Amino acid sequence: MGQVGRRQFLIATGALFAAPLAAEAQQAGKIYRVGFVMSAAPMSTLAGPDPAPYMRAFVYTLRNLGYVEGRNLVLERRSAEGQFERAPELVAELVRLRVDVIVTAANPVAHAAKEATTSIPIVMATSRNPVEAGLVANLARPGGNVTGFSLDTGPEIYAKRLQLLKEFAPTISRVAFVGDREDWESPEGKSTQTAARALGLTLLHTAYRPNDYAPAFDLVIRERADAIFVSWSSPNYVHRRLIIEFAAKSRLPASYSFRESVEDGGLMSYAASVDDVFRRAAVYVDKILKGAKPADLPVEQPTKFELVINLKAAKQIGLTIPQSVLLRADRVIE
Prior knowledge:
Strand order of the largest sheet: 7-6-8-9-10-11-12
Low-confidence stretches: 2-26
Radius of gyration: 24 Å
Number of helices: 14
Number of domains: 2
């Protein structure tokens, strides 16, 4: 090889190796901006020294994947704090900030995000019946710019919860189902009704009105229910403390769809692990930031479930939890 040929070869080889190094350096210097919008959580639980467990799981997973706030990540935290009509304005603000990804929790926020942008990828950390809700085309290939996770666990989870409630309090016979008409008529609601018949229980539909639980609570008292079964819904999450206080005051055992309800003083919950879902949402954010298209990432369902029991709540209503149930708990709050 002549001198000129050797020089051209070295230049070409150097360029070949320099290209990926330059690309890597460019990526290393990039600041990623991720929008994070909750539907009901107080803003105080999304940041600070002691954030909510699901938020901590999300941030820690991102950190383990190489995204660190203050270094190469800006996490734009927002929450409608139970005022779902605020979701469009919160999402619009993130679109104006030109975030790289929007992470949503609950259908109202996901709908607002989908209506606000067709170009920014959207990861639903939690959703409910996303196909029926019109958020994605199907679970396997969602299409468009929306993907993520559904908390739908199949109607069997409701039947399992009712069975556990019966094990907690074997003498119960009349159970109040706290949920709206959609909850009652959903596959989960119908599964609960079938399970109630199999367990010899009378299941009473006690519907609430938007931001008004008085009619539901009045019906619980009037129908002399001796236990409460709280459906999975955003209003029930937002007003969980109200339901917990009513159950405690009425000395009624209650089963909840959210671990936070038990942490706030409720008796028991059996549901998908929200922390695990948010960890997996962080992994989806990583994949998208590395070039994956939301349309090609399937909407996944929960794989981890947890039974959480609050012994203090049990003692407050004079209930002794069977040892056989305690041994199956993933977490016991004393």
